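In response to the reviewer comment on reproducibility (Comment 2.3), we provide here a single inverse folding case reported in full, input and output, so that an independent group could reproduce the run without further information from us. The structure tokens appear first.
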């Protein structure tokens, strides 16, 4: 039976073990993640505490010792992934920084993943079923450069709900990347990542088969293998524009609640911006229940 193989199985279970990010067709982990490449566009905003806290489930709260909460918006373009036979996909994640999980045996402080939009169903299915990530689908085209601005967008069947526009990006030495320094707030790549796994019960609205906190360890003091870094001058970084647009239910019938929640965030000044390329990726196999 599939319960006794020690391998990953997903629906439909009758067809045997399923290949995915953490398991190849031979049942073993992939060993060529170092050949992958990740393009990141990251922007951190100050955020009004109550509007950010409102998006956290019960048992999670922004650290009370943090005077100014922050939120990270990050567009990611993953390329040459071994588990997709060299293909890739795009993501757009929103992270609440400095969140303390009180649902675990010991309090854990990290960045909390509010939502991760992805433009490919396979990482959504594997990430939700095997790791409990809060992933949903969206159209996420590769970024474009228009009138000197780098532009990322997110849409659902043609209805655009996120647009990040960044002007005047300049190449800088890799050593100047904020990823090389400790920030005044948690970052998912450094201190780790929190999210909450939730699986509703079949035929019983309001009940669940699974509901518990998840932690993804960060890299700690290890420096990321950055191969390219670009940013903006301090005098122009506030010219970044992040637009989160509400739409009638008919335009976003399945993710309207998510977009409305993000639109409720009361954002302040830009704390940090980075546009960089990183050599290698990973399978997030260290993810664990806490």
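Designed residues, in position order:
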């Amino acid at each position: 039976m599939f319960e006794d193989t020690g391998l990953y199985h997903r629906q439909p279970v009758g067809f045997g073990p399923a290949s995915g990010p953490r398991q190849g067709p031979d049942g073993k982990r992939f060993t060529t993640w170092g050949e992958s490449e990740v393009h990141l566009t990251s922007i951190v905003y100050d955020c009004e505490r109550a509007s950010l806290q409102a998006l956290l489930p019960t048992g999670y709260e922004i650290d009370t010792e943090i005077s100014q909460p922050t939120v990270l918006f990050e567009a990611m373009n993953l390329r040459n992934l071994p588990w997709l036979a060299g293909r890739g996909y795009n993501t757009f994640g929103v992270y609440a920084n400095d969140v303390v999980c009180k649902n675990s045996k010991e309090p854990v402080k990290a960045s909390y993943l509010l939502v991760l939009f992805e433009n490919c169903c396979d990482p959504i299915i594997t990430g939700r079923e095997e790791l409990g990530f809060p992933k949903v689908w969206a159209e996420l085209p590769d970024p474009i450069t228009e009138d000197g601005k780098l532009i990322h967008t997110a849409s659902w069947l043609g209805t655009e709900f996120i647009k990040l526009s960044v002007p005047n990006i300049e190449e800088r030495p890799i050593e100047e990347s904020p990823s090389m320094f400790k920030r005044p707030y948690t970052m998912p790549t450094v201190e780790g990542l929190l999210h909450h796994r939730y699986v509703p019960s079949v035929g019983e609205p309001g009940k669940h088969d699974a509901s518990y906190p998840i932690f993804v360890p960060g890299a700690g003091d290890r420096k990321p293998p950055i191969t390219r870094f670009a940013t903006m001058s301090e005098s122009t970084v506030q010219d970044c524009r992040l637009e989160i647009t509400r739409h009638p239910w008919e335009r976003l019938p399945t993710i309207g609640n998510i977009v409305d929640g993000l639109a409720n965030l009361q954002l302040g000044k830009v704390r940090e911006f980075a546009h960089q390329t990183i050599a290698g990726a990973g399978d997030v196999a260290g993810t664990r229940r806490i």
